[in-house]
Amino acid sequence: MMRALNKPSRPVAILSLVLAAFAVYWPSLGNQFVWDDTALILRDPFIRSWRLIPEGFRHFLFTDATASNFYRPLQRLTYTLDYALFAFHPAGYHFTSILLHALAAVALCFCAQALIERADTNYKHSGLIAWLTALAWAIHPVHSAAVCYVAGRADELAALFGFSALYFAARSCAGKSSRLSGWLAALCFLAALLSKESGITSLLIWLAALISLRDYARLRLWLGVAVAILAAYCSLRFTCESSELPPEQPIPIAGRPILAARAWADYAGLLVAPVNLHMERNIRVGEHGDTMQTIREASMREYETLAGILLIVAFVFWWRWARRGCPAACIFLPAFVIAYLPTSNLFSLNATAAEHWLYFSSALLFTAAALSLAAAPVPRRALAVALTVWLVFLGARTFVRNYDWKDQRTFLTQTLSATNDPARVLINLGVLESTEGHQNIAIDHFQKALNLRPDQPFALLGLANAYLREKDFDKAREQLQKAGDIPFTHATALARLAALDYQQHGTVRLDLLKEAADLEPGNWEIQSTYIKTLADDGKLPEAIAALSKVLETQSYRSTSWQLMGDLLEKSHRTDLASNAYAQARELDVHYQPSALEIAQDVK
Question: What is the pLDDT of residue 121?
C-alpha cells in the first residue's frame, strides 16, 4: 500500500494510474469508429485545419449531420489535433482518449487529496485514499462508454478540467501561489464548461464546498468569478450559428421522479457489480407485443423503483452518519449530488439512463465511500482482501468490455438489447446492412423501427433508400412521400425523389433539387447534389453561381472549394481554379487533390 502522497511518491502515483488506464483499455486501440464517431470525425469540416479552430468555436457539434445544441468546442479541438496527427486512422483517436482518461485519473487523485486536506487538515491518509479512489475510478468498466467511444470524449475533458479546477481552487486557499492557482482554477472551470454543458457542476461544487466550510469571504470572491465565467461562456455559446433540431418527445414531469428512483437503483448496481453493461440503458417499460412479458417487465421496474427509493433513503442516512463519523466525506457526498443531478432524470434529456453520465459524479462518490470505509469499524485485513478482489474484477471486466466497440455491427447489436430507443438503433443497423448490400435485412430493420415509431423520419428515408437500391421504385416513392410530409425531412425527401426519378425514368429533376436547396441552404449534402447536377446537366455558370452563394456563408469546407476549383477548371478559368484549390489546401491538412487538379498539375 502507498504511504501518503508526499513529493517522492507522487511520480509513482502518476505512473501507476497512467499504466493502469492503458493496461485495461489497450484493446480499444484496435477498434473502429462507431455510432456518432462518424459524424464528429469523418464528416465535421472544422477539424480539418488549424485555421478553422476559431470557426469551430462558432458552431455546435454535428455539423453536416443531424443538428444538435451541444456546444463543446474543446472536444472538437482535440479532434483537430488527432486529425492532424492521424488523419482518419481510428487507433490514434483511441490512444488520445485513453491518455485523456489517464490524465483525468491523475487530476482526480490530486483533487481528492487537496479537498480531503481542505476539509480535515489533520487527516493522515489523504494521499492513500486519493490514490485508491483514482485507481478504482480509472479501471472501472462503467467508464468504458466514455473511453472506448471516441465521441464520448466530452466526458473525459469535462472531468479532467473539472478535477484540475477543484485542485487549483483548493490550493488557492492554502496560501502558496494562491493568485496563480486561483487563475488556473478559473480557466479550468471555464474549460470544463466548454468541454460539456454539465461541466458547470465542478464550479457549483466548489461554491458549495466554500459554503460548507463557511469560508464566506472566498465565497463572495468566487461568486464574482463564477459570473465572469458564465458571461464568457454565454458570449460564445449564444452567438453560435443555430439550426433546426430534430423533434423530441420530452418525459412528462409526473414520471420523472419514478425514473429518477429507477436510475438510482440501476446505477448503484453498476458501480458495485458492473456485469450487465450497455451503451444505452432502458429503465422504462417497453411494449413487446407479448402481454405477459410486458407485465413481467413492468413488475420488475416497480421493484427497481422501490429499490431506488430505499437506496436514496440509505444515502441520506449515510450522509447524516458522515457528518458525525467522517467529516471529510461530507464535502464529497453533496458534491456527488450536485454532479449527479443534471442526469438524474429530474430534467428531460435525450435518454433516461447512460453509463457515461456517471463519469464525473462517480469519482466523488468513490472518494466519499473510501473515506467512510476507512472511518468505519471494519476488519482491515478483510477490507484489503475484498478491495483487491474487487479491483482485479473491475480491471478484467473493463478489458473485456473494450471489444463491444470493435466495429459498428458489434456496437449496434450489443446496444440494441438494452437501449431506451430501439428504433434509433434499428435504423442504424438498417443503414449498415443497406450499405453492405443486404437490402432485405435492411428493409426488415427499417420496418421494425417504423412499427415502434411510425412517424420516425429517418426510418422512412432509410427504407426508401433500401427500396431504391432494390429497384422497387413504387415503394421507395411511397416512403419518400411520407417523409416529405414531415417538415424536418421535407427537403431531404425532395432530393431523394429527384434521385428516384433519375434512376426510374432518366429524368433530371432540377426543380426538386432547387426547391430542396432553397429549403435548407445550410445542408451541404443537398447543396452539393444540386450543384453537381447543374454541372452535369451542362449548366456550369448556374452551378458556379449556386456554389458561390453557399461559400458566402459556409467558406470553411475544403470540399466546397475543391468543387469550385473543378467547376472553374471545366469553365477554362484556370487562374481562379488554382486559387480555389489553394483555398481547399489551406482548409485541410490532409488535402487530397481531385482528378482535375492532378491533370492540371501534369500540364
Answer: 64
pLDDT at 120 over 80: no
List of residues 6+ apart from 128 with CB closer than 8 A:
1, 2, 3, 4, 5
pTM of this prediction? 0.92
Q: Which residue has the cell 443531424?
A: 66
State the DSSP code for 40: I
Q: Give the Cα separation of 395 and 291 in Å (integer).
A: 40
- Quote the mean pLDDT of the chain: 89
Backbone phi, then psi, for 354, in 5-degree steps? Answer: -155, 135
Using DSSP, state whether 41 is helix, strand or coil.
helix
d(CA 199, CA 157): 9
Whether 56 contacts 78, CB under 8 Å:
no
CB contact set of 65 (below 8 Å; sequence gap of 6+): 39, 40, 43, 44
The pLDDT of residue 302 is above 80: yes
Check residue 281 and give left, alpha or beta (phi > 0: left; psi -120 to 50: alpha): beta
Q: Tell me the per-residue pLDDT of 168-216, one tens digit each, with 9 for 90 and over.
A: 999 888 765 678 889 999 999 999 999 999 999 999 999 999 998 888 8
Residue with more model confidence, 324 or 603:
324
Mean pLDDT (whole number) for 494-502: 92
Residues 6 or more apart whose CB falls under 8 angstroms from that of 99 comprise: none
CB 338 within 8 A of CB 208: yes
Distance CA 459, CA 450 (A): 6
CA distance 398 to 444: 34
DSSP state of 471: T
Q: Which residues contact 100 (CB under 8 A, 6 or more apart)?
A: 78, 153, 156, 157, 160
What gap in Å lies between CA 214 and CA 331, rounded to an integer?
Answer: 12
Mean pLDDT value across residues 152-179: 89
- Residue 71 β-bridge partners: none
Predicted pLDDT at 516: 93
Q: How many residues does the chain have?
A: 603
- Tell me the C-alpha distance between 119 and 113, whole Å: 10
C-alpha to C-alpha distance for 360 and 226, rounded to whole angstroms:
20
- Whole-number pLDDT of residue 447: 92
Q: How many Å apart are CA 380 and CA 353, to the nearest integer?
A: 35
Q: What is the reported pLDDT for 287?
A: 54
Is residue 202 within 8 A of residue 186, CB to CB? The reply is no
DSSP conformation letters of 541-595: HHHHHHHHHHHHH-TT-HHHHHHHHHHHHHTT-HHHHHHHHHHHHHT-TT----H
> Per the structure block, which three cell numbers stand in for 284?
422504462
Residue carrying the nine cell digits 478553422: 52
- Compute the half-sphere exposure of residue 539: CA atoms within 13 Å on the CB side of its CA: 13
Quick one: 456 exposed, middle or buried, by C-beta within 10 A (0-12, 13-18, 19+)?
Answer: buried
- Helix boundaries (H) for 402-489: 408-416, 422-435, 439-452, 457-469, 473-484
In terms of C-beta density within 10 A (0-12 exposed, 13-18 middle, 19 or more buried), how is residue 214 classed? Answer: exposed
How is residue 152 annotated by DSSP? Answer: G
442 vs 30: CA distance, rounded Å: 27
Collapse the DSSP code of 297 into the 3-class scheme (helix H, G, I; strand E, B; otherwise coil) and give the result: helix
8 Å CB contact between 563 and 533: no
Give the residue from 433, 437, 469, 463 showing the smallest Cα distance to 449: 463
Helix (H, G, I), strand (E, B) or coil at 351: coil
